[in-house]
Amino acid sequence: MFAMNPQTLVSDCLLHIFSFLPLDDLISASGVCKDWHDAADTQWLWRRLCLQRWFFCSQVVLSSSHVNRSWKKYFLRRSCLEKKMKDGRSGGYACKSLRGHTGSVVGVVYLQVNSPGSPDPWSASSTVCSAATDGSVRAWNVQTGEQLWCGQQQQPLTCVTRDERGDFLATADSSGDIKVWQALTGQEVALHHSASPHCTLQFFNKDQHCFLSVGTNQGNLVTLSAPSLSQRSTLMISDTFKVNIVLISPDKNWIMAGHKDHLDCSPKVVYAESLTSPSEDQDPLCHLVPVSRCQAAVFMPCQSARLATIHRPHGADSTVLSIFQVILHKSKYKSQVQVQQVASFPLELNTASSNILLEAKDSSVLVIAAEHRMWVYSLKGDLIASYEEHMKTITSMCVDNFRVVTASQDLSLRVLTWRHDKDDALALDSRYHLLGGSHTMSRGFTHVCCDYSSIVGAVQGKNGKDVLKAYTFTLTVQVSQPTLLV
Fold this sequence. Notes:
Number of helices: 7
Strand content: 35-45%
Distance between the termini: 17 Å
Shape: globular
Low-confidence stretches: 477-486
Largest sheet: 4 strands, antiparallel
Number of strands: 32
């Protein structure tokens, strides 16, 4: 093709031919002559490449009032950043230690996220927040390692979570006090006394209003308005066991609440509107999920209300994964919640561990971790892959559309990335590991979270002072431009 006289090809023909070229060939073609260079630089070609590779790309993504962007620049920079995140080579990322806590970190969440849909994912900053048993909640700039603010409570903190937009975060302490903080400044917004020493918290938005679901030691699911923390409703989930699982469905219509690891306690799914706008003459709409000893659960992120659970049936030695569809059936006179099982299959876990982690990607794949192993299953029960790369127990896991990151007591983070094979089936490739420090000073990772261009993990210190490790992937685009032939 390159031997043809470029003058004989009109611009439209060149564009049509160039649309079939992979990236390296397109860059090579741009060096043949001025006509080919101009054709290969056409924004339509690079927009097409972007849309083929990243489904969320649009003109809105690249629009900016102060920066003149191009689809070519976006493609090259984003490709370079993703390559660094896949390779994990020395020099492709920077590691910073975020120190300040004098206790054990109980949770880490991103407040300001560097998302893949950002028009400038290579330069946007990220903010992460951590809470610890020293009673402090701290916000950090992930890229610089700078502490942005610190809030303090008298009692040890037990958990932390943030709202969907990242405007607020909520913490609970060992005395049962729940507090909302302004994410940007760390200012205290509201306080609620729950009288529950260990709460489970989840924010959710419903009808343009924000709410906080609270699972308590008394077995209740309490719904609070956020950020004011005024109480809207209380529903008893169990009169015997504490509520330590609270999940929100993607459509925000359902809340799953229950207790892990007990045969006599089945979780419930509750219609969210009956909690946020309770009726005096009608009980909240809810239904038991027909599983015993629920060990882990997750809503499928690309389904409105599809719930996956890992549980151990009565009298069974094996662990089972069951998938349910939650439906609100409305008739003329009443509404009923239905929980329909759509799949169920045994798992190859063979572990007595109660610490089983379950996450989902899109609507087709489930990722499970227990002890030092990890498995990837399809929703039909097919085992896609299994991994034994960690030497010690996996303590935390982060799953998104780009990668899976696991944290372990062996003081390492393992990074795996998704790909589609020749049959368009989803596969997961093991890439590299990140180290968290010296075993003489640290016991291992306890938490991990990530956004598009960074990973943050909490490392347990042997002196009782946990440290955050922030890994940020840098961007230095070096695209070889061919010499233009005249």
